[in-house]
Design brief:
Elements (H helix, E strand, L loop, with lengths): L1 E7 L1 E2 L1 H18 L4 E5 L11 H10 L3 E3 L11 H6 L3 E2 L13 E5 L5 E8 L10 H12 L5 E7 L3 H11 L5 E5 L9 E2 L5 E3 L4 E4 L8 H10 L12 E11 L5 E10 L24
Parallel strand pairs: 1-3, 2-12, 3-4, 4-5, 7-8, 8-9, 9-11
Antiparallel strand pairs: 1-13, 6-7, 10-11, 12-13, 13-14
C-alpha cells in the first residue's frame, strides 16, 4: 500500500494560518493525503505557538505539529507540550525541557506514522548532539511506528545534508525546516530515504522570511531595532508530498509543492491568535 505524507513548511503568522484554513482540506482530498505534518513554531505573530492556534491547526486538518528554536516563545503552550500527543519540540533539547521529541499519528489506513524533531547546532542556540539524540530514539520508535519522518530544524545546509545521509535507510524521510526558503534538492537517497534541505515556509512570501520588507531593510542598513511586522502579500503554502511503500518503508517519490492563495490582507483575520502579533524582532 502507498502512503502519501504532506509536510508543510514553517507557518508564519495570520497569513500562514489563513491559507491553511482555506486550502488544506482541498489539498488533502485532491492528493489523497494520509498524514499532515506542519511546522508551527512561527504561527503566533511569527514567533511561537499558542494553545488557541494549536487547536485551530487541529481543526484545519493538521495531524502532527513540530516546533523548533521558538518552541517556548509563548509560555502558555507549555501545558499543551506536556499533555498532547500530536506536538513535538526538538528531541535534542535538554531532557528536562517540557514536551517530547517524537509523536505518532494513527492514520485511517491502519498505519502508525511518526515524526521526530531535531534542532541543529551551527549558528543556533546550544543543544545536545542531534545525531546522538536520534540514535537513542530510533530503536524505541521503531517498536511504535510503521513510518518515521525526521525534521531537521537547522540553519546550516551542511548540517541538514549530513543528517540526511546519516539517516538514509533508517527512516522514510528526512526534511529540513527553519530557513523559510524552499530548496530544489529533493531526492531519494541511495538507501531509500526521501530528503530535502528545506521545505520552505507557509505565509507571505513577498517579504523577508515572512516579515515586512521595509523595517527589515532599515534594520540591516542602520543596525537599529525595528519591529518586524508579519507581511501580508503573496501568500503561499510550501512543502513536500512524500509517497511511501508501507511494506518496505522506502520512499518512492518526493515532490515539492507550492500553492498560491489570493489572500490580499489577513490583518483582521484570526484576531484571537495571541499577543503581540506584529511586534517580534525575530525572523524565524
Amino acid at each position: 500500500m502507498k502512503l502519501n505524507i504532506l509536510c508543510i513548511g514553517d507557518v508564519v503568522g495570520k497569513p500562514g494560518r489563513r491559507v491553511l484554513a482555506e486550502e488544506l482540506k482541498g489539498l488533502v482530498e485532491q492528493r489523497s493525503i494520509d498524514c499532515v505534518i506542519v511546522n508551527a513554531e512561527n504561527a503566533a505573530g511569527g514567533s511561537g505557538l499558542t494553545p488557541q492556534i494549536y487547536n485551530k491547526l487541529q481543526r484545519y486538518g493538521v495531524n502532527l505539529i513540530t516546533l523548533g528554536d521558538h518552541t517556548y516563545r509563548k509560555r502558555d503552550i507549555i501545558s499543551i507540550l506536556e499533555t498532547a500527543g500530536d506536538i513535538v519540540r526538538p528531541a535534542n533539547m535538554s531532557e528536562l525541557s517540557a514536551g517530547k521529541g517524537w509523536a505518532v499519528y494513527h492514520c485511517f489506513k491502519g498505519f502508525q506514522i511518526a515524526v521526530v524533531s531535531l534542532i541543529g547546532r551551527i549558528f543556533m542556540k546550544p543543544a545536545d548532539c542531534p545525531f546522538g539524540a536520534i540514535d537513542k530514539i530510533l530503536p524505541k520508535l521503531k517498536q511504535n511506528a510503521d513510518i518515521i519522518f525526521v525534521e531537521m530544524h537547522a540553519e546550516a545546509t551542511s548540517e541538514k545534508i549530513a543528517m540526511g545521509y546519516y539517516l538514509d535507510g533508517k527512516v522514510s524521510c528526512c526534511f529540513g525546516t527553519h530557513t523559510h526558503v524552499a530548496t530544489a534538492d529533493e531526492k531519494i537517497l541511495p538507501k531509500g530515504t526521501a530528503y530535502i534541505t528545506d521545505i520552505g515556509m507557509t505565509g507571505p512570501c513577498d517579504s523577508v522570511l515572512g516579515r515586512d520588507k521595509e523595517n527589515v531593510l532599515k534594520s540591516f542598513r542602520t543596525q537599529m531595532p525595528y519591529p518586524f511586522a508579519v507581511a501580508q502579500d503573496d501568500v503561499q503554502i510550501n512543502g513536500i508530498i512524500v509517497t511511501i511503500d508501507s511494506n518496505t518503508k522506502v520512499a518512492e517519490k518526493i515532490e515539492r509543492i507550492c500553492i498560491k492563495s489570493d489572500i490580499q490582507d489577513s490583518s483582521t483575520y484570526d484576531a484571537d491568535d495571541g499577543r503581540n502579533e506584529n511586534l517580534s524582532n525575530d525572523f524565524m
